[in-house]
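Justification of resources, computational component.

The compute hours requested in this renewal are based largely on the per-chain cost of generating structure records like the one below. Each record pairs the submitted sequence with a full structure-token output. That output is archived, and it is also reused by downstream analysis tasks.
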Amino acid sequence: QLQLVESGGGLVPPGGSLRLSCAASGFTLDDYAVGWFRQAPGKEREGVSYINNGAGSSNYADSVKGRFTVSRDNAKNTVYLQMNSLKPEDTAVYYCAAGFIATMFGDFYDYWGQGTQVTVSS
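The structure output for this chain reads:
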């Protein structure tokens, strides 16, 4: 069964850090591009970052550029999203997704995780 599972969310004060994990089972994650998305209450889902397969080129939304870093650990079949200097506006449910096209548009991804809540608040 093909599955993605996110973990690492939680409550953190402004300026804090979290590392989200996206672990795959049933398939080799490095064969796919992986995107990170988030959705805050009352807002549309937005693309946060993606990392391509193979050489692993990456891209970031302007709102997180310089603060978030996406990376792969192929030995663990896992992709990470390191989030630093978190702001209250980063509060959302974060999802990872796998697909064959590296893009900020979620419609191009085939497999999705269940999401993990990130709350940035003092």
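The mean pLDDT is 96. The CA atoms of residues 29 and 77 lie 6 Å apart.
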